[in-house]
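tokens incoming
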């Protein structure tokens, strides 16, 4: 069954690659086990900051594709970058990107921008030679001009969303160990909460557990539960991949969306990510008490609502919220990467 899902998701990923892109071999007829540690769940060897600002890596764009519909609030692109196997990373890590040019104010090079990697370590083509980014184009709407002000657009996000196949991307990293999956116990539940492009690391998780023939996928018997908050249906990211995983592995993968402009919360207001998570507060709390790991990636504005929700559950159970969260952090069950 996993081979069927892998083949289908590879076809989906291939849709991101234009016909004139550099050709890569595919390892679909092989197991995805050639980039594993020994044992596969040992994170002590995970590399960080292999490439730094003063000695960065230069990758080449394979493809850049808009991945949201016409009614989405803004433009989000999926960018596949060829690193030729020379820039190893694992799921949950980030790449730094240094946009070309210099800052207008002082003529110095632009600073590094961090982006969560949106693919597994094997890449969308499963060769281990590419990695992907999920980037929303940052723009500023000027009420006086009644148009986007080009002087205030995001330097790096616009550079990435405008790239063409063959363009070079100067990169640093990989960065971070906060968002890694603890894979030693294959029964571990993962609760993943994302807004917008914060979906990136969780796409890597889902591909590793349900699309690829990895050692982790072979033994996984827990439940991975994904929450994604976006404005509307056109703004959903990688929905085809997630729906396929849900169809193929209904006992191991759950999926819930919060569409703020299409759904209402229990009070009749807009459905934000914290409202959707609150609907399952007791179940989530129980999973956390049983050892589940909870991840947050995206806009930091979601965190107060999440924290208030858990505080309410703790109060109802006669528990101290601060001590509860402190315990989760001490046991490594609480993973936050917000901006």
């Amino acid at each position: 069954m996993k081979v069927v899902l892998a083949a289908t998701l590879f076809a989906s990923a291939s849709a991101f690659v234009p016909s004139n892109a550099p050709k890569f071999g595919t390892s679909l007829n092989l197991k995805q086990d050639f980039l594993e540690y020994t044992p596969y769940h040992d994170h002590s060897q995970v590399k960080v900051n292999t490439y730094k600002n003063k000695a960065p890596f230069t990758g080449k764009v394979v493809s850049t594709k808009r991945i949201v519909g016409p009614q989405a609030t803004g433009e989000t692109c999926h960018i596949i970058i060829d690193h030729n196997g020379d820039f190893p990373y694992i799921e949950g890590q980030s790449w730094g990107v240094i946009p070309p040019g210099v800052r207008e104010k002082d003529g110095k090079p632009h600073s590094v921008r961090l982006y969560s990697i949106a693919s597994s370590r094997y890449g969308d083509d499963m060769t281990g030679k590419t990695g992907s980014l999920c980037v929303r184009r940052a723009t500023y709407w000027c009420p006086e001009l009644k148009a986007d002000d080009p002087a205030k657009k995001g330097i790096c996000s616009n550079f990435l969303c405008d790239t063409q196949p063959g363009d070079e991307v100067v990169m640093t990293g990989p960065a971070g160990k906060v968002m890694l999956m603890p894979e030693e116990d294959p029964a571990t539940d993962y609760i993943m909460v994302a807004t917008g492009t914060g979906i990136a690391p969780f796409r890597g998780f889902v591909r590793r557990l349900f699309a690829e023939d990895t050692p982790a996928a072979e033994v996984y018997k827990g439940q991975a539960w994904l929450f994604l908050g976006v404005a509307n249906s056109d703004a959903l990211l990688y929905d085809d991949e997630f729906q396929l995983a849900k169809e193929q592995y209904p006992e191991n993968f759950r999926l819930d969306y919060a569409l703020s402009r299409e759904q209402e919360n229990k009070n009749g207001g807009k459905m934000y990510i914290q409202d959707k998570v609150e609907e399952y507060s007791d179940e989530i709390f129980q999973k956390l008490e049983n050892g589940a790991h909870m991840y947050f990636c995206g806009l930091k504005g979601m965190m107060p609502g999440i924290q208030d929700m858990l505080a309410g559950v703790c109060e109802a159970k006669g528990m101290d919220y601060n001590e509860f969260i402190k315990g989760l952090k001490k046991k490594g069950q609480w993973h936050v990467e917000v901006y």
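note: Residues 66 and 202 are 19 Å apart (CA to CA).
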